[in-house]
Structures are given as C-alpha cells and as structure tokens.
Amino acid sequence: GSITTAALLAAVTNQPNLRALISQMPALSALISSMSSQVLTSNTLSAGLLAQAVAQSGLFTEANLLAGRKPVSRANTKTQLLQLQKGVAELMGNQLGVESRAALNNLSDLTNAALANLHQQQLISMPQDSAGQRWAFNLPLEWAGSVIDMAMTIEHDGGNGDAAEAEKRQEWRVYLNLQLPELGKLHATVTLSGSEVS
Asked: In whole angstroms, what is the distance from residue 138 CA to residue 127 CA?
C-alpha cells in the first residue's frame, strides 16, 4: 500500500536507527512529537476527535490558507510533513556517519511518500462538476500499542429538484478501511439515504 503518516510514525517507532537519528536532532524530534500528538487513540475515539483529526489531516491546508485561517494550517499534518521534508534536506548537507545518512535517506523517502499520498488525496477530494463531493483521507490510529492507518472516504450526493425533495434524495456514504493486528483487513460502509442508515 501507499506510505501514509501512520506508516512514517510506525517506522520511527519500530526502527532503532531512525529513532536514534531523530533523538539527536531537536528540530526533527519536535516535529515527530507534534505529529505523534495528533494520533487518534482507539480507547478515546469520539465524533469530535475524529472531526478534529480530519480538519488537521492536511486535506484542507490550502483552503484554510486562502480563507486566512493560518493557526489551523500550522497544526496540520501537511504543514508538518513539509517542515520535516525541509529539515531533512537541510541535514543532508551535514557531515554524517554512514548509519545516520542511511537513516536520514529512509526518513526522507518516507516523508516524500507520505506527502505524495496526501497530494493524491487532495486531488481525489477536489469538487467535480458532474458528480457529488468526495473527501478521501488517512488518519493515524493507535491500536493495541501500534500506530495503524485508518483510511476513510466520505461521499455526498445531493438530490436534485426543490429543496424538500432534494433533501429526501441526499445520500452520504462513508467507507472505512483498516487493518487490525488481531482481525486483519476490515472494510465497512455506512450509508445515510434521506433518514435511512444502513
């Protein structure tokens, strides 16, 4: 699958050479710590925290900047990944040992891949003239001591016609995909059609 923020954070946790490199670099350490603080925890998950995580996912970075909402933009995942990319690039010029350089290259690859994945989600989420709206995003979720990837897509089809009829024909669909250590792959779809949920 594609590399996401969850995969990057999992690599930092599970790879000793990456952990060692980051612990020696205060700027990188602060960024990784900030990104880790936004990981959802399975035992405290709520609608409010999920909405906040989506807002901070990086999906709306440019929209927030255009609207003048800079504080929101600074705390989001895309901004943090861009800062991490810049920090890694600056460190590349330093005199580093073979292991540190390999770890830095690995971190660079993970960061670039996570940014590419986020750009792809932003493209998927752009409004289409001929169809309803779709938002695609990945959120890091702490599950049983590991950081896993929770992929979600929300689709909205507005009904046509007068307002009352359009509201009856509106449809919302949420697709959820994740891989849990004990259960394996889990795919769920929730549909709200008018007032019917399935």
From this structure: 19
> Which three-class secondary structure state does DSSP give residue 110?
helix
Tell me which of 181 and 173 has the higher pLDDT. Answer: 173
Distance CA 112, CA 119 (A): 10
- What three-state secondary structure class fits 10? helix
Residue 154's DSSP bridge partners are 135, 174
Structure tokens, 98: 């073979």
Residue closest to 77 by CA, chosen among 27, 26, 139: 139
Find all residues with CB under 8 Å of 159, minimum gap 6, and list them. Answer: 165, 166, 167, 168, 169, 170, 171
pTM: 0.85
> Taking a C-beta distance cutoff of 8 angstroms, is the pair 168, 194 a contact?
yes
Least Cα distance to 11 among 153, 107, 136 occurs for: 107
Listed residue (58, 191, 72, 66) closest to 125, CA to CA: 58
Q: In this structure, are strands 40-41 and 133-143 parallel, antiparallel, or unpaired? A: parallel
pLDDT tens per residue, range 8-63: 999 999 999 999 989 988 989 999 999 999 999 988 989 899 988 998 888 888 88
Angle at 20 between CA 107 and CA 88, to 5 degrees: 30
Q: 3-state class of 82 per DSSP?
A: helix
